[in-house]
Fold:
Amino acid sequence: MSYMFSSRDSYNGPLLSVILPTWNGAAFLRELLVALSRQTVLFHELLVVDSSSGDETVAMARKFGAEVLIVPQEDFDHGGTRSMIARKAQGDILIFLTQDVVPVSADALAKLIEPLLSDEKIAVTYGRQLPNRDATIIASHLRYFNYPPQAVVRGFVDRERLGFQTVFASNSFAAYRRTALAEVDYFKSGLIFGEDTCAVGRLLMRGYNIAYVAEAMVFHSHNYTCLQEFRRSFDIGVLHVTERWLLDTYGQAEGRGWQYVQSGLSYLVKMKKRASLPSFFWKMMLKLLGYKLGRNFQLLPQWLVPVLSMHRSWWLRNRDVLVGHK
Structure:
């Protein structure tokens, strides 16, 4: 099965490239690939960059017509790897997915790119993520909090009203105008994660807008354990201190955190899940602790920092970040 046009000359509209990083995703990749094959928009190429999977991921992707580039697992970089494949892509619009999303409808990609086709000032769109069928009540609330049913377009000026929420986006389901992304040199390499947030922040500063397309939907959620919540929040704190310009430009992230806590309490009560309140409070405490420690990782012993992080291998590749710390 192939997704490609016969040639650029045979199509007058913008070419679409779908970019998909993978690693040991065979257990759920087929569902995504089948959903992509049924989309109402054609795309020029499906580019898979695989981090040396040990399962059938590569064979499965090739069976569905993907061009696969394999990189060593230890060389994967959230920003750098995506930039490498984006530069290789031929599309005018670059659609980024992760291997664990599933489009809700056959027109999900068509709806995602529509603002890019109708407004040249929009450089990025991202869609709504709905909780998976097996999502816990806490995981479900996080998706409803971050991805409401109302579409919105945000620009640089909105930072005064929305603060850090202005730069929120997710490369799990996003589309970029290639020329705009090239203006900011694609995604920054060497980030612990958050390549999407940093790219959006730079694009907004150049006068572009970002569109949240609530009508474009995928299923995507994670049932994180308490330890995983802590480690992810730790890494968010690390990102915010190593990319200090984000907070300096768009404001602190704590305000959004308190909104999340208030929303979570209301959601659990509304859904008659009061039994989940202790678990919610415990996770919130761990997330806050993780974030605060991440923001102050320079004060921690060097050996402890990778232990607290969800991305331990990143610290091995970026030892210079810890140079001069305890």
